[in-house]
Every structure is written in structure tokens, then in C-alpha cells.
Amino acid sequence: MTTGEKNREKGVPLLLKNPLEKFKGASFSGSVFNLSCTIIGAGIMSLPATFKVLGVVPGIALILFTVFLTDMSIEMLLRFSRPSGCGSYSEVMGDTFGVVGKMALQIIVVVNNIGVVIVYLIIIEDVFSGSTSNGVHHAGVLEGWFGAHWWTGRSFVLAFLTLTFFIPSICFKRIDSLRYTSTISVLLAVVFLAVVASVSVYKIVEGSVLRPRWFPEITNFGSFWNFFTVVPVIVCACVCHYNVHTIQNELAEEPQMQAVVGTSLALCASVYVTTGLFGYLLFGESTLPDMLSNFDNDLGIPYGYLLNDIIRVSYGGHIILIFPIVFHPLRLSFDGIFFSSSRPLASDNTRFAVISLLLVFIGLVGALYIPNIWVVFEFVGATAGFLMAFILPAAITLKDRHGIATGKDKLAAIFMILLGIFANAIAICSSAYSLVR
């Protein structure tokens, strides 16, 4: 019997809307889309801004290096969960470090995912209702189509989407139920990417694109510190560890999980590199922290405004559709912190509804009062992102409770911890310096 089958017997996190419903297991393609959807989220919009800071060559290298480390850390996590049959990241932490470890991981997931939820809502606001950056207002899609009205404002748009989509979509208790929305979401991201790349190539051929910076320009202490602020942004864009076990437990054939991870990361790496490169080529030094805000002016090509709308609407739709797949582990971790001794969340509809509504409300408040996505990425990526993606999987490997780690595993784990601590400290100091300045 596979670990996934054991977990399904125990009810670990396979949560059915109807206990009598028969579930034969998720497909490989559905699992790939769900994991890819977890990865390809809001971080994609800040990648062109990281290329503006880093330059093209270090930007591409950092993305590929982060994806490589992510694959390594997920492999560690899955391998060290098998001996004890753990069905979630928090259970692996509990098996290795006890109740304190399990609780710590759940708190980290809540901090990370509530930050991601807020980022998603901010992007949706920016897309449909507009944003203001450096004193300049960038009109949203609805404002561009119908003008400025109360019903095109940020608060109303978020309230409308919350009632009509977010609340219904987070009612699913099994992550595989989101495979169709995940597939559509990834396809919308591809549409967005194809249009951005096409516009960039057109302008390159036309000769209206300025020569990009291949390497960063460090002219003073401030520019040096600014270089490190992009690291948590890219780390945050690759975090998907909190959904790996849930997807594995629902997969029809558990041994396929490593192939699911590899396929998803390869897809996401290509999307990230292409988006960062073409987005930066298109806007150069005028690239904003949220690149979508750049698409409110004429692109200087035929049908420029129509292409602007296609780009913004397709990506806005992508973000709307991936909201529930990030919310799913957020709710489970929040419940694990406060109701660890209660019956399973799926069997308590009242608790399920109250926790869901509370977390949605927190996300809405954060989205309305936090100025832009870069602020959230710097904080979340520099804290929860590094811990969840690299430091904790490496700590599990070094602890090696079941005696299965090789010398190579331990060397890799030490490298990941040292790198994580160094990059974490630098990113936090850099963010603090930027705020003070």
C-alpha cells in the first residue's frame, strides 16, 4: 500500500464534500496543473522589476538557481516523509521536531499564504480598478471602459468578486476539485505571456526598445542594498511546498509525484524567465513593481489599447482562479493552530465556514490598506518564504530521524541553511533600509 493510499485511509488531508463520494485518485495532468497553479501566482508580475534591478543575466541565473534549489528541497521533503507515512508538511515537522515543529510550520504557512492572498487581491484591484504609483494614477480596465464610478472602485470590485467567486470557490474540500480552474488559470497565464512576448518582439524589430542592462549597476550603498531586495521576491514566487503532500495524497499513483514536481517546475521556470525578460525589454527602466500597472498607456503599436486589455484581463482572470488553491492550505493550517484537538475540519461545516470567512475578511482588509505588492513580497519572502522553502526542509534532513540521509544530503542541507540565513538577513536589512530611506 502506498503512502498516499495509507493517508487516504486515515483521512489525512483527503477531504470530500460528500463522505459517500468515491474518489479514485487525481490524474497526472490535473496534479501538474494544480501544483503549477500554486507556483505561478502573483510573483510573476514582479519579475520584470527584479530584472530591472539585477540586470538580465543575473536575473535569469537567480530564477534558475532558485528553481533548482526548490526541486531539491521538495525532494527532501517527500523522501523524509515516507518512513513515517506523513501526509502533510506539518506532519513531517511534527514527526521530526515534535508539537513545536508542527505548530511552527503551521504559523509559517499562515503568514506566507495570508501574504499571498493579500497580494492576489491587490493585483485584482490594480487590474480592474487601477492603482497609484509614485503619485501617478494608472487606470484599471473597468475605469478605462466605463470611467470612474463607485462601482468601478477597488472596494466594490473586491466585494463583488468575493461574493460571486471567492466564497463559492473556497467551499471545495478536496484540492483535486480545483483541477479545472487551475488548468484554465495556467492557460490564461500563457495567453498573457504570449501577448507580452509578441509585443516585445514587435517593438524590438521596430527598433523602439532601449538596450537592456545585462548586469546590475552599483553606484552607491543604496543601490547595493537595493540589489538584495529582489531575492525574497523570487523566492516567494517559487514557494509551493505547502500543497505538495496534499496533491500527492490525492494522486492516483503516488510514485509519479516527483515527475509532477519536475514537470511543474520546468513549466514555471520557462514562464518566469520569459515573463521577466520580455517584460523588462518592453518597459526598461520604467518597469513598475507590479508590471500590470504599465499596461494602462498606449504601447505604440497597432491595437495597443486592445492588447493592453487582453493582457490585464487574462492575468486578472488567472489570479482570480488561483485564489482558492492558495486559500486551501491557509485554512487547514489556521485550523491546525487553533483547533488541533477538534474533529477534522471537513466534518465540521460551521467551523469550516467561520474560518473561511474570517480569513477572507483579513485578506480584504490587507488588500485595501497595503500600498503595493512589492511591500508584501519583501516581508513574506524574507521571512516565511525562506523558512518554508529551504531552511526547514534542510533542517529535517540534518535531523534525519529515520537515518536515511546520505553525506551528500547533509552537505546540501547545510548549504541551503547557510544560504537561507544569509539571504534572509540581507533581505530583511535591505527592506528595512529602503523603508527608512
UniProtKB/TrEMBL annotation:
Cellular component terms (Gene Ontology): organelle membrane
The signal sequence is none
Q: Does the keyword Transport apply?
A: yes
Query: Keyword Transmembrane helix, does the record have it?
Result: yes
State where the protein is found.
Membrane
The source's domain of life comes to Eukaryota
Chief localization = membrane
Tell me where in this chain the Amino acid transporter transmembrane domain is found.
Answer: 26-424
List the molecular function annotations (GO) for this entry. Answer: L-amino acid transmembrane transporter activity
> Membrane topology for this entry?
Multi-pass membrane protein
Give the residue spans that cross the bilayer. Answer: 26-47, 53-74, 103-123, 151-172, 184-204, 224-244, 265-283, 310-330, 351-370, 376-399, 411-436
Going by the UniProt record, its keywords in alphabetical order are: Amino-acid transport, Membrane, Transmembrane, Transmembrane helix, Transport
What is the protein named? Amino acid transporter transmembrane domain-containing protein
Instruction: Report the source organism.
Output: Kalanchoe fedtschenkoi (Lavender scallops)
